[in-house]
Amino acid sequence: MPKPRKDSFFGGAAVLAAAIVVVKVLGAMYKIPLGSLLTDAAFADFNTAYYIYSLLLVISTGGLPIAVSKMVSEATALNRGNQVKQVIHVAMLTFCVMGVIGSSIMLFFPKQLADVMHNTHSYWSILVLAPAVFFICPMAATRGYFQGHSIMGPTAISQVIEAAGKLVFGLSLAWILKANGADESICAAGAIAGVTISSALGMLFMLYCYRNHRLGLAKTQDRPDSAQQIFKTLLILAIPITLSSSVMSIANLIDASLIQGQLQNVAGYTEQEARTLKGVFDKAVTLYNLPSQIMLALTISIIPAVSSALSLKKYRQAAQVSETALRTTALLIIPAGLGLSVLGEPIIRLLYPTTDVELAGYILSILGIAAIFVCLMQVSNSILQAYRLMHIALFTTIIGCTLKVVMNFILVANPDINIRGAAFSTLCCFGLIAFLNLAYMKFALPASPNYLRVFYKPFVCAGNMALAVWAVYGLLSKVLANIGPFGAETDAGLELSRLGNAAAVAFAILVGVVIYFILVFLTQAISKDDVALMPKGDKIAKILHLQ
Prior knowledge:
Elements: H1 14-37, H2 40-61, H3 64-77, H4 81-108, H5 110-116, H6 123-148, H7 153-179, H8 184-215, H9 227-265, H10 271-294, H11 296-311, H12 315-342, H13 344-351, H14 357-386, H15 390-411, H16 420-444, H17 451-481, H18 484-487, H19 491-522, H20 528-532, H21 537-543
Helix pairs in contact: 1-7, 1-10, 1-11, 2-4, 2-6, 2-8, 2-9, 2-10, 3-4, 3-6, 3-9, 4-6, 4-9, 5-6, 6-8, 7-8, 9-10, 9-15, 10-12, 10-14, 11-12, 11-14, 12-14, 12-17, 13-14, 13-19, 14-16, 15-16, 17-19
């Protein structure tokens, strides 16, 4: 079987991939401590505003950066420097208008938006976050410009600036406000102010880079298309991508409003109780999102690698790259998801000791399984896009999101299930999307991946690892609980219990990692062809004696 070029897969998006890793680490350092700093209700306020912001952001910038990148790339290849200038001028104006509209909606209608979301306390967070929509828009335009020139450095650095800004300013403002006795909803607004400040910093950096790059371009004599024609082309390219990107954001926004509405209007909870339950759920979601964020670097590399093989009609090579991507996903994500599931409550007790540990732990255990399907959905969506089957990915996403909304409408309204229903609906939603994507790929692609090869060994290895983690944690936690000081009902005893839980979690994870890696290589779950796609893969495969 022919092998794809090594630099077309894992190495193709190295700069952005490295930036994504840094950004996601900084993001975790921001969101996880924030969950401990804010009350459950305040954390719900924070996320309510963020859902609104995310939807407006997708509508404002969803497909436009990709459209700008494509148009700039084409013009650059033809040495049409004036066309490039015209494209970025039209794009910048378009982005800024969209940004003003998006920011204005949040700035002038925060009360109405908070009412629609059934969370009146999110008013201040929505208001503080409003300028961020505008700041993101010119930043997105310049990112598209640089990506069209195949210059990824400014985009990568701006992403790191954003993540670091949120961490520094968001946590600092939330801590200062809480230390001065501010209301919990004001503390949430302080935390989300970090997003606005970091967006402004990222925008200024990108504009600085754009100015320097533009001054260094050679002058050309080409005649650019009219502004009207460029604007029309931008919309033609951007609208389908924006519609596809909007589905999940719209579903999340509806979900957030529906969950709090059903809890209050049907299940009989007060707004404060509903906010608290939603905050507990959001804290579990913060951890459940971590595995899917790991996969972003992989999904960036899939599309060009598969597309390149398809353009040469090398269908078996495209299938091999797709199979390797799925197997890599399975090897990384199945153990991560099962680990979150079996250690749901201990992890919540470790990171969020002041929340409802039992409820949040139960939710995280369900969401841990869901995280596996989220990652499979991401990778399969990228494969379908590489095959120019974007409409299939859009269709399956709409079906899954519809199921999620319907299940939440029914389950969350049941007082005996309440917020737990949101976890079950998330699992069913992404499980269905992943299943439909994989089924379509199996029966419709010219050469499809072998799913038995993809999933069997990773699942067996991860399943045994999960059993070992569950047993080790259970045994160690019981041993520590029976040691006098650890089980004492005193402040010192409770503190030791938390330290004991942390030690048990850390040791169980360490044992799980060791067992998993041993099983992976004993069962040859990763093949020589898989490793060969990595930088220096041939040498790594020889050292590990892979077949």
